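Reagents: none. Just compute today. SIS domain-containing protein.
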Amino acid sequence: MNVTEKVIREQFAFWQGAASAPLPQITQRTVVVVGCGTSFYLAQSIAAAFNEGGRRAIPVPGAEWARRMGTYLADRSDTLVIGLSRSGTTTETVQAIEASRAAGLPTLAISCEEGSTILQAADRAIYLPTHKEEGIVMSVSASLMLIAGLRLAGVTPARAAEAAAAMAAVEGADDLLRGKGHFVYLGAGAMYGAANEGGLKLMEMSISLSQAFHPLEYRHGPISLIDEGSLVVMLYSAETAEEEAKVVADVRAKGAKVIGFGGPGDLSVALASKGPARAVEVLPALQLLGEKVALLKGLDTSQPRHLTKVVTL
Ligand code: F1P
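Predicted 3D structure written out:
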């Protein structure tokens, strides 16, 4: 087993730390959550959780917020900027925190690297200790930052045992994944960030093409790509599962195989949680799917093509 897979499987030992870490109270009316890559997709789920909790929140890629915050938010009064970065040194996310401070906005950073640049740059800092061997592909750190971010938003994240059960449920997915060349991740609300992250993980690990959409959006054009080579991962939302099951029936009729988290599919994975907590519950399973496709293609995810642990400008 390579180190990437090992860390994905052993990540639950670190979850309690993020689930119990002391967190600051958020008092601002508006919250902007920034990050790059995986960290941006986590920001999407965290911002959704803030909104559901009654705050106004938007996720913005670090580079965008640093360069054109006015394009994303005209009224920046009473606004907190939260920056997520595993490494704490990704240029654009650090720039986003620095630009926010220069604009007089309060900042909070979350990172898995002790004493990292972003933790020093922000007014307040949350350090989440994690697996030292994580390597390039982000897995356990993503789970920990999502857990802490959801807690900041007032959501109790799914528990490690629940996520471990969802991960165990995809162990037998190889027959569905074998020979597939087109992967689609669908999720609504807070699950949209999880869908994006699932698609990114698969791309990075298995050098495969993936798309992520809101479930009902997929019928408005992208469905034209579906054929027998397609694998669709549906991340059901409890309150709209019935409609989402219709999309699943649609893509299956066109030849796709489906893994349904929280609803029907060729493989159906039962979920314990609802709402944004669900994003945490599915994350390790999505990470393992990326590893599985890579293994089927004979790729070593400890050395992903063209990727480095930190991207700097
Ligand atoms: C962000 C990121 C990762 C990606 C790659 C490069 O890192 O874009 O999402 O997988 O490793 O960096 P960070 O800012 O969270 O350290």
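Residues 277-296 form the longest helix (20 residues).
Action item: order primers for follow-up constructs.
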